[in-house]
Design goal:
The longest helix is centred in the middle third of the chain and has 14 residues. The protein has 50 residues and is mainly α. Helix 1 packs antiparallel against helix 2. It is built from three helices and no strands.
Length: 50
Amino acid sequence: MENLVDELLLTSYDKAIKLNLEREFILILEKEIKRRGLPLTSTLRNEIMA
């Protein structure tokens, strides 16, 4: 996961949500985004929290 560039990580997160992939996978991506201090759009976060 550390080899993934920030932009690709954020894109992967966005696509994972849009494709309704496994919640665990999405949470792993979100954890890495937070670890890197990258911004999460509130729209995306609200979608997975529902």
